[in-house]
Amino acid sequence: MASIVRVCEENCEYGGEGNSSLVIRLKKEKKILRLLKDSQQSDNDLNHKLKQLQYQIQFVHNVMQPLLGSSFINYPVLIHLPANQVKMINKIVQNLRPAHRCTKNVKEISTYALMLRDCCLLPLQLANYSSKGPVISIEIKPKQGYMKNAGNLSGDQILKTGVCSFCMRQHYRLKKMIIERKSGYCPLDLFSGCKMRMQYAIKQLLETPQNYLKIFKNQKLIFCQENKADLLPLMDEFFGKESHEKKLDVFCDLVIQALLSPFNSEEVSNIQSNMSHKQQFCKYSCNYLQQNERKHSDGLPSSCVLGRILQLQKLDSIDIAHIYSMYLKIKGSCSDLLNNSNLHLVDGYPRNEIPVEIGKHERQSSETEISYMARKIWEFLVALSAKDFSVMVVLQQLCENAVPLVPSEHVITGSNNKSYVFSMSVIDLDSKPLNKVEKVYNENQEMLKAYAVNV
């Protein structure tokens, strides 16, 4: 049953938005509301929207929690909003939305939304310790952190050898004039586990945030692509009297420590993979490490947030052309097949049950050819979700007397010798529909063509 919240102008403020959702911050409850924008299908079908959101809740509980771990999960609650409250929300945000996001809106009819904890805030169990200075929240959308093995690529997909999908996409977006200049950020640097490479990655995100970095101060968005404000005042307030360059290094160091911090991994389902966890280098990765250092460098610890995300991303181990071929075979076999409980696919989405064979590259003796293909497509869709995750790091400086009281796994010490309480969340845990296979395949072909011109 859906819960009810009171929406009024005094309690609501614009929290941001993506392609498919509008985010509203509920100040009193310290929660956020995620409302679905209009889509081409079923805009007026309330039951369709209800079913879609109920599925998303189940997906978080039944798939993401066991694969990612509850330490990072922000659990959604279903909320009903009458038409007059939706109208009020649209009025509140109408002059605050970026122009490029206004092509999609929330229809002013009775609807459902998801309510979640506001991940720009420290969780309640960490918020009441003696602290000082602002609460800083850093949202990073890291994207795909690995390259597929050359042995898993064929045909024109071989172009992907030596360049990661993010950097290839940057060429495509530049050619299409979606971006003004290519980002120097490479996800392989952030996912490397090497602090020098990770620092370089964060500094490149600060240079060109695009849609991959946002910084909040006390819940207010102060830095993003549309608002590349001078961060010096924030750094002064957060770190005190240090040189600007040193403050930036301390900032990067804190974010890296948080991203590499280990969390309880006992509850996480084991994912088998035939892919290496060693550091990888794209031709656009930073060049800090010499060849001999590259050879002996280990990758990410699997118990940190980036390690967990990378494990899920690597469920996509097969060439997209092969996945697309599987998709066409299943789609063309029989519509009833998609509702077969053994196929892990139903109603156009991956099922809310994790296959026992998860991550195994080869077809298992328990699988038919069709169920094997359906499992690989299920893994592809879950991996696709993981490639769109955002990581929220929340930081606040602790008073000295509070440091021994805070659980040690939530305390980090910066290179300035000051201690900070931090929390970590993974957001945007949305499942991907089956038709994404075709969309990704077509986009991939376009990217390969655009990149081939630059090779």
Q: What does the model show?
A:
By secondary structure, this protein is α+β, with helices and mostly antiparallel strands. It has helices at residues 46-68, 83-93, 124-127, 165-175, 187-190, 195-207, 232-239, 244-260, 291-296, 305-313, 320-333, 369-386, 436-454, and strands spanning 3-4, 12-17, 21-26, 31-36, 77-81, 111-117, 131-140, 213-217, 220-223, 345-346, 349-350, 390-398, 411-413, 419-427. Strands 1-5-6-4-3-2 form a six-stranded mixed sheet, with helices on both faces. The chain has a six-stranded antiparallel sheet with strand order 9-8-7-12-14-13, with helices on one face. It has a two-stranded antiparallel sheet with strand order 10-11. A hairpin with a 4-residue loop joins strand 3 and strand 4. The termini are far apart. 38% of the residues are buried.
Short description:
By secondary structure, this protein is α+β, with helices and mostly antiparallel strands. The protein contains 13 helices and 14 strands. A hairpin with a 3-residue loop joins strand 2 and strand 3.
Strand order of the largest sheet: 1-5-6-4-3-2
Report the strand count.
14
Low-confidence parts lasting 5 or more residues at pLDDT below 50? none
Portion in helices: 25-40%
How would you sum up the global shape?
A: globular
| Strand proportion | 15-25%
SSE arrangement, N to C:
EEEEHEHEHEHHHEEHHHHHEEHEEEH
Query: Termini distance?
Result: 55 Å
Helix/strand-derived category reads: alpha+beta
Count of helical regions: 13
Query: What's the gyration radius in Å?
Result: 22 Å
Tell me, rounded to a whole number, the average pLDDT: 85
Q: What summary fits the major beta sheet?
A: 6 strands, mixed
